[in-house]
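Postdoc handover notes: sequence design on the structure in folder B. Input tokens:
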């Protein structure tokens, strides 16, 4: 029971942090323009998760357009859309993740 209560508090804190984020989708898009889409698959997925978590559905086009710049981009729109739909918006990803990946995988 203690673990469940702590988990609920942690999730509430993450949601609050998300709501307080000053980052905009335009800023995220600018950040991604300096981030290589040729990053490892797991990083690519987590970037999509972060975008959806932070900006929800409007971020799909940003993720898709950024993904197109990668050499391994798959033109199958339904695969991209299905992957996007699988992402949860539970507050577990932050704008900081995008910032850190842009530093780790610059263009």
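Designed sequence:
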């Amino acid at each position: 029971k203690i673990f469940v209560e702590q988990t609920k508090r942690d999730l509430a804190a993450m949601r609050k942090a998300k709501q307080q984020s000053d980052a905009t989708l335009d800023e995220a898009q600018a950040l991604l323009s300096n981030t290589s889409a040729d990053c490892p698959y797991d990083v690519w997925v987590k970037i999509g998760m972060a975008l959806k978590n932070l900006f929800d559905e409007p971020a799909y086009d940003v993720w898709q357009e950024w993904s197109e710049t990668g050499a391994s981009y798959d033109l199958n729109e339904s695969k991209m859309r299905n992957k996007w739909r699988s992402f949860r918006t539970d507050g577990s990803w932050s704008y900081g993740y995008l910032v850190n990946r842009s530093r780790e995988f610059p263009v």
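Context for whoever picks this up: The mean pLDDT is 85. Don't rerun without checking with the PI first.
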